[in-house]
Each structure stands twice: as structure tokens, then as C-alpha cells.
Here is the input.
Amino acid sequence: MARYIGRENVRKRLEPLDEGRTEYREGAVRIETEDETITVRPPFGLEHEGSYDSVFLEPLFGELARDRVIAAVLVRLGGFAIGVFEGERLVASKVGSRFVKGRHKKGGSSSGRFRRRREEQARALIEAAAETAVRVLEPWRERIELVALGGDRRAIDELLAAEPRLAWLVERRLPRFFTVEDPRQRTLERLPYDLYAAEVETTEGATEAPSE
Here is the structure.
């Protein structure tokens, strides 16, 4: 089963390996030793390709160490957090919250009023999050390389649909969606570990490399 592991922890895990073979292919590296096979997929891809009859990790470590300029847009009904990171340093950010009622459990006419009120509150939050995202990210737009979207998928989809000025985020979005329960300042401050975490899968015993 694959896990996401911070880039420094990946280095610590792999540096002791000294015997085996290595294959770089399709954005990942596969390291085969006598005891296990480890597949690592860096968060932003891996261009290097090649096969080696040794444990050759320099291309992987080089990619993991590379810092990027990344925008983060985290939105849930109830709050949002927008930020820009240079490497792991948060250089711009803004968080906000709006009260959104929970779901109504009763029927009748009150249910319809409750639903409309909840929809109004949700719309106000999405509008506030979108306007904040424009203000925070626009000055960095030319420098932002990648975009991390997270929080609640439906809320993010509604935000992107509501604000044409944020259409460019889709083109730079990372494949991974960062699910967070409570978008706040501290959530942003902890995000770099996940942003730079690599997907690592380990299986016991060496296996044959896939044929071409």
C-alpha cells in the first residue's frame, strides 16, 4: 500500500541502501534490493529515465530537494485558507470563515427555508473565498508554478466555477487533492510537509522489472 512520506524522511529511508538495482521510468523510481522493492513517485514528477545495476539515487534526491513556488487554496463550508509558498516558507496568506448552517433534519416548510438560508450562507462563503484568492494570488501569478487544491472537493469546484479570474489555477493544479478538515492559518503552516511528500510503496522481496 502506498503512503505519502515527507521528502527528508524519504532521504533518510533510502540513503542506507547500498546494493541492488534502480530503474527510473514514467515519473517514478523503482529500487530493488535483496529484501524489498521500493517505488517512489515524487510529488511534482521525475523526468530522469534509465536503468542501473546499482542503487543510484542522485536524480531522485535532486528532484525531492528542488523547491517550488506553490499556491494553496483550501476551502470548506465554514472556512477557507489561501497561501503562497516559496519552498516551504509561507510568504503570503489570508484565511477567513463564514457561518454555514448544518443540514436540516426535519421536513415541512421550515426545511425549505432552512435550505435556502444554508445555500445563501454557502454562496457567501464561496464568494469571499474566491475574492480572497484573487487578491492573494494575483501578485504571484507569474511566479506560481503549481497549485495545491484542498479542503472539500465540492466547495473547490464551486469556487472555480464562480470566479473566472481563477481559471488559471486548474492548469497548474497538482493531481493530489489535499483533504483538510479545518482550513486555518496553522493548517497552511503545516501544509509544506504534505506538499513535498513523495508517494512511497514498499513490497517485501525483490521482483522482476517490467518488460518493455
